[in-house]
Design a protein that fits this description.
453 residues
């Protein structure tokens, strides 16, 4: 949720790039662009972005730079979901509670949000390369912290640094994909697919390491440390699409001030989308924090690979669904996706009550489809209503709400497990998601009828 997932790009950017609002967990929310009121939206490229052309001497081509950024996006999102299948192992090893587990999970979202709201726009002013190099090195440090972890304190440190690194880099990555895209809307397509694909691949990869290696909590982070060090070195060859301009140092400092505001004309649509935003991101938070625990503690599955497959199923279904419905009217997508999310969550709760693993995965896939499409429709419903100068504040508001929904309910669930137990907590959590999803269906239908009239 992502998720993610995420996903989840340069949401709070002031650069008004051309992009589409398409992806669950996607952090640029369409490059911060406006649109036509449907799921697809488009904006205008800023004057500070260099036009396409030959790469400067000593740099790779713009096409190669684009695919380098795409691979980097996958690596960041994969690294974000890698700990999810490992949480159960850490919990067994060090004996901490579910509340502590969800706290370790939630600190990542909080750190990412802080970084996104402060340094998320920095690359617009000082250039993509320096921000990306810093993000890669900071992410490598997070992987080293995971390697050194011998207790909960190290996990908290690792996830905090990882959240800061991701929040720093994601805006530059998403914007760079649009800057360097070799074909129209290819940057938006990669921004759509990469977050969920990365989340799915990371969770699955971690599960495979657990199954087939003797030291899964170290070997996978050795690999990821090397990956991010190599990516940092590769970023020195990236063409710089942001041209220097007078006063950029002063502007860079000003950009560190968070801007959170919903334009007046978008307030009605934003308010109507709130239940969908909360339901989708809370779903991602539940699966990424407690998915492995549910598989082990409720379904009695001892194979930790299954914990990775749970996240993979959710994220992959969300990615596929968002691509299928990306051209549909936003209100219809939000309402239909929310209904599918409610149905999928209901199937999942029934599976937990019956102890059925196949039904649990079926529910997860259905819920993932709703997760991806409903978030996409929610964004599309109000993204077109903001002027270019208002987009940074609007999407900052989206991220504040979304990441709070991603982390706070999961943290509350972790605390509740100690008194209610895991099955009852999951049921209460699921009922909340169903109620919010059904409310989003009603509001989506109402907004759709109002738009047609």
């Amino acid at each position: 949720m992502v998720m993610t997932s995420e996903d989840c790009a340069v949401s709070a950017s002031s650069r008004e790039t051309a992009a589409d609002v398409r992806a669950p967990g996607r952090h640029d929310a369409g490059g911060g662009s406006g649109g036509t009121g449907g799921v697809r939206t488009a904006g205008a490229r800023t004057p500070a972005t260099a036009v396409a052309g030959a790469a400067p001497r000593g740099r790779i081509s713009r096409r190669a730079g684009f695919w380098l950024l795409a691979a980097t996006w996958l690596a960041f999102m994969g690294a974000a979901s890698v700990p999810s299948p490992l949480y159960v192992i850490y919990q067994q090893r060090w004996g901490f509670s579910a509340a502590v587990l969800t706290g370790v999970f939630a600190i990542y979202a909080v750190a990412l949000l802080v970084a996104l709201l402060t340094v998320g726009k920095l690359s617009d002013h000082i250039g993509r390369r320096p921000v990306l190099i810093a993000g890669m090195l900071l992410e490598a440090l997070a992987m080293v912290a995971f390697l050194a972890a011998d207790g909960v304190g190290w996990l908290v440190l690792a996830r905090t640094v990882q959240g800061l690194a991701t929040g720093l880099a994601m805006g530059a990555i998403s914007a760079g994909l649009v800057d360097l895209q070799p074909g129209a809307r290819l940057g938006a397509l990669v921004n759509t697919a990469a977050p969920s694909t990365g989340l799915a691949a990371g969770a699955l990869g971690a599960g495979l390491f657990v199954r087939y290696t003797a030291t899964p909590t170290t070997s996978i982070f050795v690999l990821l440390t090397a990956v991010f060090v190599l990516l940092a070195a590769a970023m020195t060859l990236l063409p710089e699409p942001v041209a220097p301009r007078p006063g950029r140092g002063r502007d860079a400092l000003a950009s560190l001030r968070p801007q959170v505001a919903v334009p007046r004309r978008a307030r009605g649509a934003f308010a109507a989308a709130i239940p969908s935003l909360i339901a989708t991101w809370a779903t991602g938070g539940l699966y990424l924090s407690l998915g492995g625990s549910l598989a082990a503690g409720v379904l009695g599955i001892s194979d930790h690979l299954v914990g990775g497959l749970v996240v993979t199923a959710l994220a992959a279904a969300g990615a596929v669904a968002s691509l299928i419905v990306r051209a549909w009217p936003a209100a219809r997508v939000m309402a239909g996706g929310s209904l599918v999310l409610a149905i999928g969550t209901g199937i999942t709760l029934a599976a937990l009550a019956a102890g059925s693993t196949p039904l649990f995965f079926a529910g997860t896939i259905v819920a993932g489809s709703g997760f991806g499409s409903s978030f996409l429709g929610a964004l599309g419903s109000f993204a077109s209503l903001a002027e270019p100068a208002e987009r940074a504040g609007l999407f900052a508001a989206v991220y504040v709400l979304s990441y709070l929904a991603f982390s706070v309910p999961a943290l509350a669930a972790g605390i509740a497990v100690s008194s209610l137990g895991l099955p009852a907590t999951a049921t209460a959590y699921g009922v909340m998601i169903i109620a919010l999803s059904l409310l989003a269906v009603v509001l989506g239908i109402v907004r759709g009828r109002a738009a047609r009239s």
